[in-house]
Each structure stands twice: as C-alpha cells, then as structure tokens.
C-alpha cells in the first residue's frame, strides 16, 4: 500500500514537530517527547497533540514513547 499525504492538512505546529522528529532521525535515533519540546520550544501539550495527529495520519510511527518518521512522499533535507 502506498500512502500519499497532503502536507497542507498539517498546521504550523504539526510541521514544526515533524521537522524536529526528522532532524533527530538524521542522527539515526528516535525522538522522545522531551526532545521535541526542547527543540521546538512548544508547550508539551501542543507537542503531544501534534505527535498524536502525525501518528494517526501515518506521518510518524511510535513505539514505547519514541517517534520515528513514517513513510512519506517528499524529501526532507537536513
């Protein structure tokens, strides 16, 4: 199954959170909520809401409180 995402459905906070997880993934590690809060400066509640949205829509995958990139159709350059 090929997933196609419409990035236009992402809010500014969602994009910021996604980019933080993507930046952590360039270091070949998964992101924790605390990492994303620290990197974005967003309130923890906002980060958790965005992580849930991004996970529900397949942009991120989660396991045991860590987040990694899900399949995507665009490139992220860092």
UniProtKB/TrEMBL annotation:
Residues 23-62 form the HTH iclR-type domain. Pfam families: HTH_IclR (PF09339). Transmembrane segments: none annotated. GO terms for biological process: regulation of DNA-templated transcription. It comes from the Bacteria. Keywords: DNA-binding. One of its GO terms (molecular function) is DNA binding. This is DNA-binding IclR family transcriptional regulator. It comes from Planomonospora venezuelensis.
